[in-house]
Amino acid sequence: MGITRRPYADFAELECRRAELPENPPQPQPEPPPQRVQHLCKPPKKFQLREQALYGLAGQVVRTLAPHTEADPAAILLQFLAAFGNAAGPGPHCLVGPARHRLNLFVVLVGESSKARKGTSWSHIERLFAEVDQPWVNTRITTARLGAAGLVHALRDQQPPTDRRLLAVAEEFAAVLHTIKRAKGHLSSLLRCAWDNGDLRLLDGSTPLRATNTHISLIAHITERELAQNLDPTDAHNGFANRCLWTSVYRSQCLPCGGSLAPHELAPITQQLRQALDWAATTDTVLRRDQAAESLWEECYPDLSQARPGLFGAATSRAEAQVLRLSAVYAALDRSSLITLPHLQAALAAWEYCSATASELFGTSTGDITADRIKVAIEESKVGLSRDQIRGLFHGHVTRDKIEAALEQLMSLGVLTHHLQPGRGRPASVWSAIPGAETIDAATPREGT
């Protein structure tokens, strides 16, 4: 069977077909470009870093670096403030009575492992300071695992006097907390002394070690799960936790090809940073608030100094001291011996973020094993627990008085409610969880701050 081909059209037939075509045929519409899929890398937060925290040079650093990195702006800001506070040295300071508050800060970034870009954020800050003060980056930053003897020995008193500055970057802070929790050694108390006045003393065997007038800052990275597992309640309540600025961080955006920050974009920042460090190196003066800042301080001080219960209260009980130091750092970045209203407003905004982080991390946890065990059991029960059921949780190993004290503590936190349930005999006391009582509201700055 052959193949039948259609005969070709002759010229007359082609002319006839062309006459049948419309004079203005419709033009094909271009296909719409494919819509770009936006990758939401950063989950929504319950709280955000307020614009007032991005004041001055610190804000300029964040706005310059943030478009070129997946790191959280809060991570960039707090680590920059901590790094500058250390590089500035012990000269600029504030006085509260006889207590001298210098610019050294303890910043702890809390975020998901690898995805929160904690290490990425630090690499940008380290690069920035390397452009300005390479010797400080080379010799005064350590990533070695923190130990009590090593810390004191590194800064021990010598003749001639040596540089007293040290910025400890603990990217595996869980290991440090685990060591503190397990060994019950001197590191926790030494870090508290380092934050307070910088005078460290340790008896290493029979040899006393002493490091005076040190200027130690801390930048630490940890996940929320590691923090829950390794932060000992004793260290939460003994003052170690409240010397830290807890900072919740997430990946801020997706940059598949990484950032592309040109060196000339850093030039204005490095020039101002160098001037601020030069000013701080030659300044041994007391930083004081001006009149406007003093008025705001008096207005906010009752909220900052208010006692709050549980682990959240323990982790934020130095709010006024933290805000004071933050405001001094912002002032030093401006090369100002006066803490002005914008400096204090920026410090309050940064502290608000850290306080909200502490509320999210520690919530209504008490740090008391008995109270927290009761709280979890009641939250898991749909109908609440009676007094006898609560006692049964501990199989007779916890006294009645301790259980009653734990219930009173949980009631004061506002996480439990109590009612009488009628029965055959005397009504039974039943405790139930209050829905939504998972965190304690952080202190909110007053209007206008």
Question: How would you summarize this macromolecular structure in one to three sentences?
Answer:
With 449 residues, the chain is α/β, with parallel strands linked by helices. The protein has 18 helices and 14 strands. It has a five-stranded parallel sheet, sandwiched between helices. It has a three-stranded antiparallel sheet with strand order 12-14-13. The protein has a two-stranded antiparallel ribbon with strand order 1-2.
Describe the structure.
The structure is a single chain. The chain is α/β, with parallel strands linked by helices and 449 residues long. It folds into two domains: 51-362, Rossmann fold (3-Layer(aba) Sandwich), CATH 3.40.50; 371-433, Orthogonal Bundle (Arc Repressor Mutant, subunit A). Helices cover 45% and strands 13% of the residues. The protein has 18 helices and 14 strands. The protein has helices spanning 11-20, 56-65, 73-87, 118-132, 134-139, 148-154, 173-183, 187-196, 224-230, 233-237, 263-281, 291-304, 310-315, 319-333, 341-362, 369-380, 387-392, 400-413; strands spanning 94-96, 99-101, 106-110, 141-142, 165-170, 200-204, 207-211, 215-222, 244-248, 288-289, 338-339, 385-386, 416-421, 428-433. It has a five-stranded parallel sheet, sandwiched between helices. A three-stranded antiparallel sheet has the order 12-14-13. A hairpin with a 2-residue loop joins strand 1 and strand 2 (99-101). Helix 3 runs parallel beside helix 4. It starts with 10 loop residues before the first helix and ends in a 16-residue tail after the last strand. Residues 34-40 and 443-448 have low confidence and may be disordered.
